[in-house]
Amino acid sequence: MPHFHLEYSANLEATVDIGALCEAIRDTAANIDIFPLAGIRVRATRVDHYAIADGNAKHGFIDLSIRLRAGRSETAKKDAVEKIFDCLRAFMEPVLATSSVALSAEIRDIAAEMAPKYGTIRQHLKGIE
User: Fold this and answer.
1) What is the bridge-based pairing of β-strands 101-110 and 41-47?
2) Could you give the strand order of the β-sheet that contains 41-47, starting from the edge strand earlier in sequence?
3) Positive or negative CA dihedral for 70, 73, 76, 77?
4) Which residue of 24, 39, 55, 69 has the smallest Cβ count within 10 Å?
């Protein structure tokens, strides 16, 4: 159950392919051991109302929140968030070269006893029992 939630300022839609960014994050996460493939969920929410720095409408942001069930070591989580953040930065590099954009990421644990889950995705993945 790793959930990747991007919140992004609406002014980035003209220059950032948000769907492709979601796919880049999914692909990167799928290659990190602490993120089980069947549990990966990447979603993005456009934020229409925001105020940044000096209030100039040219500024934008992407904030990535990663939530996953508790039990991974701090070292593993640190390594994972760094890899995902590197993916975000690399994807955004062309935009960062010409635009005022703030990027941030955070990883945090979900207490399993407080977060029930159920799904059938595993049964529908090819080659996974």
Assistant:
1) unpaired
2) 41-47, 3-9, 60-69, 101-110
3) positive
4) 55
In angstroms, rounded to a whole number, what is the distance separating the alpha carbons of residues 118 and 129?
Answer: 16
Dihedral sign, Cα of residue 116, residue 129, residue 66, residue 21: negative
Architecture of domain 3-124: 2-Layer Sandwich (3.30)
Give the helix, strand, coil percentages of the chain, each rounded to 5: 40, 25, 35
Q: Which of 75, 76, 72, 52 lies closest to 62 in space, CA to CA?
A: 52
Amino acid in position 7: E
| Domain coordinates in residue numbering, the chain | 3-124
pLDDT tens across the length of the chain (129 residues):
799 999 999 999 999 999 999 999 999 999 999 999 989 999 999 999 999 999 999 999 999 999 998 999 999 999 999 999 999 999 999 999 999 999 999 999 987 776 777 777 777 787 654
pTM recorded for the entire structure:
0.88
Q: How many residues does the chain have?
A: 129
Query: Residue 89 and residue 21: Cα distance in Å, rounded?
Result: 10
